[in-house]
Design brief:
- The protein has 601 residues and is mainly β.
Length: 601
């Protein structure tokens, strides 16, 4: 094993440097410079950790607004900007504008890209018109538009280099996720699980846009790119027809399993990691079987797309617990031995730790004590149900049958955490997780498939857990023990991405619009500032002329804020979120803005 792996609790920068000869040298080198933010998650391991430490637990209370920028777009602003040298690249929700600003020239707009898209894509987008960011590589900025067009823009001029269509909006496919550049390829997923899209992860050549490989989440072995013998789940070969034999007839063709979350990469192993979403429809009665490989963590060869291992977290999903949340890669000591780990906070309320080399399951524990649909995961390796969650019959939406309202299920469909990414600090070895503290009633009903029409089949309502009034927590999590180190209550779900720093400070945003800074060790709140709109963006940091900055997009929306974003009032609209978050309108309003903070000079 490489010497760098023998040191305990190393950050991704050091770990991934060892694989530089085998991966995208440019991006690895650039991501090691803490002054910039060149990958959507900060680094390939999705740690969202910065070595910058000018801002500390002692002085963060003195933060001030350094500058602001209006995006000119309403609706929900997820993701965050890239900072590359003097340039900052800011994206927006539909119509998916991209601004390139020169930070050395008073943030002058160097170029702006505004695509012309058919507005008919808007009603096809599930849960707001969000976009989670742009990626950089090979001198280009890559954007996945709402209409599924993947566009490569010249980073200096904004000129379109090439475009390629990644899906068919006419059949419900849309683009919301941030690309990831790996070597000479740009990887991108697809949205559309609520429309019965057979979803996929796709790699395109960064220079030409030519299709390199495409791996579907469900279907025949050649389409899902698994080897019946070599691809494993929990150490055992998946076997022939591992996906299609878990679906009834040809249901896999409209099976969902979408890939609209985040992608990570280990250059040393040359593996990319991502999760697949819910099976279609939301009515579990209509799709008997485990519905593989929806709700699954995939580890794939970056060059070929072939799956090395898979792990299905929620077989035969009955609650819309998408598995698309980020895979955070860390190198830590486990039982005295160095392990290459993958930590994942799933919508289903369980925090998972796996060996990312083999896919071995090490930890699966609830990261909100209110989770009740399962009593836990079977961790007995000799058990026939090893690795499967044990479902509590009372909270099974299938056991009651169609048109039966199953009540008091925790978490709600938007999960104990949705796509808002957590952060990891190698200094504390803790993960900082923005969470939802929300339960639901869930009533499935029979629905027929029509291409391009919603294929949901369930009515939901959402509310805080019994006895509680708050709808969110921001927690610190120990991934080796599966325990919460500390937890801060928030009135609403914490829908922003977290940032951990070497200064001992962790940042996140709230739906009311506050940027908050807390002590990484204790969770003590050290600073807060209310930005122009609710925050569902991810906090980033960079340095310019010796000064550290904290940047965050505000602009309320996303699933939790869809009532405000889309002007909806029916409590069951927005797949149940409108009623659950109705009070949010008392605290914030629409408006896209970037707010940048720094210590006083």
């Amino acid at each position: 094993m490489h010497k760098v792996l023998l040191a305990t609790c190393l950050g991704a920068t050091a770990v991934f440097a060892s694989g530089a000869a085998f991966a995208n040298d440019e991006l690895i080198k650039m991501s090691q410079n803490p002054k910039d933010w060149v990958i959507p998650a900060g680094d390939y391991g999705s740690q969202r950790y910065s070595k910058l430490k000018q801002i500390t637990a002692d002085n963060v209370g003195k933060l001030q607004v350094a500058w602001t920028f209006s995006t000119g777009v309403l609706r929900g602003h997820e993701g965050g900007p890239l900072i590359i040298g003097n340039m900052m690249y800011v994206h927006t929700p539909f119509p998916n504008k991209v601004y390139a600003m020169d930070l050395s020239k008073e943030n002058q707009i160097v170029w702006k890209y505004e695509p012309k898209q058919d507005p008919n894509v808007i009603p096809v987008m599930c849960c707001d018109t969000v976009n989670r960011g742009v990626a950089y590589g090979d001198g280009k900025i890559f954007l996945h538009q709402a209409d599924t067009t993947l566009v490569a823009l010249d980073a200096k001029t904004g000129k379109v280099d090439w475009t390629v269509k990644n899906g068919d909006p006419g059949k419900g496919a849309t683009g919301t996720s941030a690309p990831l550049v790996v070597k000479d390829k740009v990887l991108i997923g697809i949205s559309g699980g609520e429309f019965g899209v057979q979803c996929h992860m796709t790699a395109y050549d960064t220079k030409t846009g030519k299709l390199a490989w495409r791996a579907f989440s469900e279907g025949p072995d050649d389409q899902i790119m698994v080897d019946p013998v070599k691809t494993t789940e929990l150490g055992k070969p998946v076997g022939k027809d591992s996906s299609i034999k878990t679906w009834q007839g040809d249901q896999w063709k409209i099976g969902g399993g979408c890939t609209w979350g985040w992608t990570s990469y280990d250059p040393e192993l040359n593996l990319v990691y991502y999760g697949s979403g819910n099976p279609s429809t939301w009515n579990p009665k209509q799709r008997p079987g485990d519905n593989k490989w929806s709700m699954t963590i995939f580890a794939r060869d970056a060059d070929t797309g072939m799956a090395k291992w898979v792990y299905q977290m929620t077989p035969h999903d009955e609650w819309d617990y998408d598995g698309v949340n980020e895979m955070i890669l860390s190198d830590q000591q486990v039982n005295g031995a160095p392990r290459k780990l993958l930590t994942h906070f799933d919508r289903n309320g369980l925090g998972y730790t796996l060996d990312r080399v083999t896919g071995e399951l090490l930890v699966a524990e609830k990261y909100d004590p209110k989770v009740n649909w399962t009593s836990g995961v079977d961790m007995n390796k000799s058990s026939p149900t090893y690795g499967r969650p044990k479902v509590v019959a009372q909270y099974s939406t299938e056991s009651g049958g169609e048109d039966h309202n199953s009540k008091g299920i925790c978490p709600a469909a938007l999960g104990t955490k949705d796509q808002q990414p957590a952060a990891y600090s190698p200094d504390t070895q803790l993960f900082y997780v923005p969470t939802n503290h929300v339960c639901m009633d869930y009533e499935p009903f029979k629905v027929s498939y029509t291409a391009g029409q919603p294929y949901v089949g369930a009515t939901l309502s959402m509310y805080p857990p019994p006895g509680d009034t708050h709808m969110g927590n921001f927690i610190a999590w120990d991934n080796k023990t599966g325990k919460i180190a500390w937890s801060n209550k928030e009135a609403f779900s914490v829908w922003s991405g977290a940032l951990a720093t070497a200064g001992g400070v962790v940042f996140y945003g709230t739906l009311e619009g506050y940027l908050k800074a807390v002590d990484a060790k204790t969770g003590k709140e050290l600073y807060k500032f209310k930005t122009p709109s609710g925050i569902i963006g991810n906090v980033t940091t960079y340095e310019r002329d010796g000064r550290q900055y904290i940047a965050v997009l505000s602009g309320v929306g996303g699933w939790a804020g869809i009532g405000l974003a889309a002007g909806l009032t029916d409590p069951t609209a927005g797949l149940g979120a409108v009623g659950g978050y109705a009070a949010l309108s008392n605290y914030t309003a629409l408006g896209g803005a970037l707010t940048v903070f720094a210590l006083p000079q």
